[in-house]
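Entry:
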Amino acid sequence: MSSHLRTALDLAALGLPTLPLRVGKLPFGNCTRCAGNACGGRPTMKNAGTCACPSICHGWAAATTDTTTLTSPLWAGAWRQAQAVAYHPAGARLTVLDLDNSSAVAWARQSLPATRIVPTTRGEHWIYLGAMRSANAVRPGVDIKSSMAYARWLGPGTGTMTALPETVRALAVKEPSTVRPAPHVVTAPTGAGEEHCRHRTPAYLDRGIAMAEQRITEAGSAVHATVYRTFLAVLSAHGRCGCLTDTHVARLFAAAQAKGESPRHCTDAWANALTRLGL
């Protein structure tokens, strides 16, 4: 039994729904059966059970406390490849405030009640009792991970867990940043003779972003759906190699907002596209 699976079983016994993460802290992708949305779509908090696939292929929605599932042959390969363990906070009625840098940590210490704190590579996770909707970039360097999200398990942390404060809930309903940071991805390995990701060449990437902007701008109806599908297409092409920057994302958000979309809808559409692709 791998150490990651042993950790997952320990967490499941405590009521934390867990799942393995591959390289880059990413969930495992769809299996063949579910590829291309053939299964009818990943489960969601509002529509749980759309896909009955027992494989580990639906991101946060695959997290489970069921030891039979965790130790099943279908999950065995994933545990052998796993680089980390994640958990679904809302599945245990928890919210993780992901503080990504020292400035965000300093803000939390001044503004929020003390709770369980887990050190991360660049900052801290503050864990509160109570679930809420997840939201990204609610403040500089601050993400909220709870429903329809996962957080990496980095240890039990220290301190006593306290009730989710209204201050944190309020962050998710305030006007969010219009630019979501570029997703944390792993640069794809280059093939023989390639010196860098081809997406980073100005002509290739700029043409793709320009086409996406045009698609949004020319939408005559169903703007919501067009924005989401365009974000999904951009991330499908460029989301796994690390070539997207905040500037590229800002251009897409600006095009959507020029069509009347709110900053919040842009942020939600981007986050939903990331989730759909398992990024």
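Residues 98 and 125 are 5 Å apart (CA to CA).
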